[in-house]
Fold:
Amino acid sequence: MAEFVQGFELLVRLQPCVSLFGSARTASDHPDYELTIRIARNLSDAGFTVITGGGPGIMEAGNRGAHEGASPSVGLNINLPREQKSNLFQDVSLRFRHFFSRKVMFVKYASAYVVMPGGFGTLDEFVEILTLIQTGKSRPIPIVLVGTEFWSGLIDWFKRALLARGAIREQDLALFSMTDDPQAVLDIIFDHYADRGLGPSPAEAKVMQEL
Structure:
């Protein structure tokens, strides 16, 4: 409960936010690392608080780019036996013991999700937000997959296996976008909110209260 209270009290003051995900194992000399810095810097300069898991790899790159920009860089750190070493580019740092409370924080105040290449944890966050939006438990927000070569195989499988079997609907494939262009990430987000504010509508706010 303390983790929920602390997260809610802090993050509500830092909106609008974008939650950014990706592999903790990505090396700092990998092209995805530099690409993530650029994307996070663009988001930060555009007025978005950037939230990552606070660890190394893509998370570090996201916090680094945001830290270099105009808006806060937030890390939602968690105690893990491997991989989770807090990076040094967090303006605001929270620490969690439990995945479930941490995952709520990624969703509750996010105006968008940006998903870089990653492993099981990244896939977990991607599929969870798809499920929450598909089932009406969360408001629709832009979900941007970055890296067409990396993600195309999974999306093809969605179509070939899930859609063909009737496990998802055609319109579910429109819940996310895919790009390789850092500027397109911003464009997709702002296009989604072109005729409205970044915050939730009254109806969406009610939905988010029950998340």
User: Anything to note?
Assistant: The chain has a mean pLDDT of 91.
